[in-house]
Amino acid sequence: MNKDLTRLLRPKAIAVIGGGTWCQQVIRQSERMGFTGQIWPVHPKAIEIAGHAVFSKLEDLPAVPDAVFVGINRHATIEAVRLLSDMGAGGAVCFASGFSEAVAEDDSGGDLQDQLIAAAGDMPILGPNCYGFINALDGALLWPDQHGAKPVEKGVAILTQSSNISINLTMQKRGLPIAYMVTCGNMAQTSQAEIASALIDDPRVTAVGLHVEGFKDVREWEELAAKAYRKRIPLIALKVGASEQAQAATVSHTASLAGSDAGAQALLDRLGISRLSALPEFLETLKLLHCYGPLPGGNIASISCSGGEASLIADMAVRTGLNFPRLTDDKKARLRDALGPMVALNNPLDYHTYIWRDEDAMAKAWSGMTGDDIDLTFSIVDYPTTDQTDWACATCAALKVRDETNARFAVAATLPELLPEDVAQDLMAGGVVPLMGLQEALSAARAAGQIAAPASHPVCLPGKAEATHTLTEGEAKQELARCGLRVPQNRTVRNPGEARAAAQELEAPFAVKGVGLAHKSEYAAIRLGVQVADVVDVANDIDTEEILIEEMITGTVAELLVGVVRDPAHGFVLTLGAGGVLTEVLRDTTSLLVPSTQEDIQAALGKLKIAPLLAGYRGQPAADMDAIINAIQAVQTYVTQNAETLCEVEINPLLCTPDKAVAVDALIRKA
Fold first, then answer.
1. N or C: which end of the chain has fewer CB within 10 A?
2. Is 263 contained in some domain?
3. Would you say 657 and 624 are in contact if contact means Cβ atoms under 8 Å apart?
4. Residue 276 belongs to a domain
5. 302 with 313: CB under 8 angstroms?
6. Residue 455 lies in a domain
């Protein structure tokens, strides 16, 4: 990520090429935001546009522009970009559509996009098919439509791959200061990760929100995450457009279980970027991060003057990962002093309305719900849409809490419309975060507490060779055993004589399996507990060209699935879950990216519903976790050694006993 986007995003001289309504809007919107730099319209015939004298061609400009809005047709755009690049312009927004996004309707679009990239050379461009950007810090806009942005001194940056979503986000009435709104368009040349990297170089940016349809270059995202973490600028993402690439392989259980979105989620987790699923919670999270940055954890406290609200937030927080710590003796003493003997002290706390209108008493009670063991305190307050006079005490009390304790403190409304924008702005000015909507507030707290340091080791990127070969079970086990995976003693046989010999060499009882079938149980091609005398008859009954005979494993505590699927967009997706014949019924899985550390693997296993079995459930012996992790590491070793050709690998099941972890079935597809 070497592009210098500073001149483009923080321009002092703007040129606008074209004379249509869109171009006039760019000029007017810049003036309305108070842009104090130069604005130069360029048009071959017009004399005046939006009150500004027009230059007939780029060569006539008095100086080289820092940022240029190119609002002309796609063919003319290419030549204009070439001239700007030759002039040394700071960058351009390419508004025209009809490039790669239109290939389905016009097969020339891809060629035109290639020509545009070549014309730009080293000059950065946004788009094509792009609305441009709003810089509300400096009042600089290359934006051809209406917007709701206001000048700010500091704030969050938002990057979207949808111009329409970006317009809507600027219209928010939530008190969120938006410093930059940038649309990426086709990202023909400049990627979202590159733009975000440039934005976090501005010290006035407090957090970055990314609306992501797809990850163009994993290495760029790794670099962005590392840089943002160094600069202490939190990143969050609203990831949409789930890729179907991870479902290209459909032979294994892993492919269906991992799904199309597992790779994206695993990549975001690895980058330390919290993910949101809806625009309201996306905005509320940015607001929380703007005020306080990432939360240390998920310990929250809630205080409200209604038992219904206390119960509501308690129920809504279930399965969010957020916790309500019990009140300490110190908190109870402070609360009792503020509230008297009539209030039952709990977290969440219903403090009734005895002290309403008494700002000092309210602040004293609310302060009692803060402390070093609480990462964020909520005071639930719903301001009426009629007369709010009697609610001014709540605003003052919240500001007093923040001023006196410096605690992370939020005023949260149960419904978004019950916290007015002017109140939100007053709270923000005093360091209190106003959260609109209780569900959104909890989502914001969860997301802000999940932001983490990115992984220090890069993702293993897959090759592109088509997978045309599926190894037999015996071959797959041999390959994995060379990387350290433990497998049962086995023999592959082709006739009754070889079957008898194998039965004499191995230790009964046996598992006898048909070779060449992906899901053997569906074809009754796997028989367990077979004794020496029955091996030949069982093999004949299965009746595949080759038969695998192997020693059975006893003392199993749990069965695991360990699978890896090549996902061209994100790397190799490592899926861990409940294994065996009920794998797809239980759907108890979690996904990582290869390579993952021992600590990552152990944490992932701990998230599974069958984790209690691995730990020793109700007095039963525990599985050997070291052996399980070593088995998973062996699979990762095989993946990294065969990254150029591998499509998928699966162990199902990995039998976990108190002293070993053994792969009793294996599948590998590769080029």
1. C
2. no
3. yes
4. no
5. yes
6. no
Name the E strands within 71-139.
92-94, 125-126, 133-135
Rg value, the chain, Cα = 31
Do 110 and 193 lie in one domain? The reply is yes
pLDDT of amino acid 254: 54
Q: What is the DSSP secondary-structure string of 403-468?
A: HHH---EEEEESSGGGS-HHHHHHHHHTTPEEEESHHHHHHHHHHHHH--PPPSSPPPPP------
Token representation of residue 537: 């008859």
Q: Are residues 547 and 563 in the same domain?
A: no
CATH of residue 179: 3.40.50.720
Structural domains counted in the chain: 4
Give Cα separations from 396 to 19, 140, 403, 423 (angstroms). 51, 36, 10, 10
DSSP for 246-283 reads: GGS--SSHHHHHHTTTHHHHHHHHHHT-EEESSHHHHH
* Last-in-domain residue among 502, 524, 551: 551
- For 518, other C-beta atoms within 10 Å of its C-beta total 15
Same domain (yes/no): 89, 208: yes
- Tokens representing 514 are 């048909």
The whole-angstrom separation of Cα 57 and Cα 596 is 56
Is residue 574 domain-shared with residue 518, that is, in the same domain? no
Query: Has residue 253 been placed in a domain?
Result: no
Q: CATH no. for residue 537?
A: 3.30.1490.20
Looking at residue 536, its pLDDT comes to 87
Provide mean pLDDT across the span 472-493: 91
| Residue 390: DSSP 8-state | G
**What pLDDT score does 166 carry?**
95
**Mean pLDDT across 197-212:** 97
Q: Is the pLDDT of residue 628 over 90?
A: yes
Reading the block at residue 576, the tokens are 């861990």
In 3D, which of 313, 324, 305 has the Cα closest to residue 435? 313
DSSP label of 299: B
The single-letter code of the amino acid at 208 is V
pLDDT of 245 above 70: no
Segment among 21-35, 515-529, 535-549, 633-647 with least mean pLDDT = 515-529
Same domain? 539 vs 582: no
What integer pLDDT is reported at residue 42 of this predicted model? 95
The residues with which 536 forms a beta bridge, in sequence order, are: none
Q: How far apart are CA 395 and CA 399, in angstroms?
A: 6
Three-class secondary structure assignment of 8-71: HHCCCEEEEECCCHHHHHHHHHHHHCCCCCEEEEECCCCCEECCEECECCHHHCCCCCCEEEEC
Domain that holds residue 42: 6-213
Across the chain, mean pLDDT equals: 91
Do 236 and 445 meet the contact criterion of CB atoms below 8 Å apart? Answer: no
324 in Cβ contact with 348 (< 8 Å): yes
Among 150, 151, 167, 143, which Cα is nearest to 24's? 143
DSSP summary character for residue 532: G
Model's pTM, two decimal places? 0.90
CB 129 within 8 Å of CB 101: yes
Chain length of the chain: 671
Q: What is the DSSP letter of 215?
A: -
SS percent in the chain: helix, strand, coil, step 5: 40, 20, 40
Whether residue 563 sits in one domain with residue 536 = no
Q: Is 187 left (phi over 0), alpha (psi -120 to 50) or beta?
A: left
The verdict on 641 and 502 lying in the same domain is: no
pLDDT tens column, 75-134: 999 999 999 999 999 999 999 988 877 666 666 767 889 999 999 999 999 999 999 999
Q: Are 377 and 409 in contact (CB under 8 A)?
A: yes
Last residue of a domain, one of 551, 566, 584: 551
Determine which helix (DSSP H) or strand (DSSP E) holds 470, and give its type and residue range: strand 469-470
Q: What are phi and psi of 192, to 5 degrees?
A: -60, -40
| E strand or H helix that includes residue 652 | strand 646-656
Residues 26 and 107 reside in one and the same domain: yes
What CATH number has the domain bearing residue 404?
Answer: 3.40.50.261
